[in-house]
Sequence to fold (102 residues):
Amino acid sequence: MTGMTRSSADLDPRRRRILFRAWHRGIREMDLVLGQFADAEIGTLSDIELDELEVIMAEEDQDLIKWVVGEQPIPQQYRTPLFTRIISYRPDFAPLSSGQGA
Fold:
């Protein structure tokens, strides 16, 4: 998965904006997590869930990715069914082994 696959043509302006923002984050890993979640679920989220999603998306990507991959504990305010659903869209981010990268 490299980018948005869902059409936004049938979405209201708020959902279109959220879908776009989910795929255009600061780091690619969060594009994949939030983007895939939004592709799959944006059309069925309630207004309350959309409110919560917008609050989650306002967090810094560096913090979000640490919570999503389990590097840091999820703050109490985000220990919700919605955040659990978002995490379920996490790809298997394999760390680079020693000697790779740079």
Remarks:
- The radius of gyration is 14 Å.
- Residues 28-41 form the longest helix (14 residues).
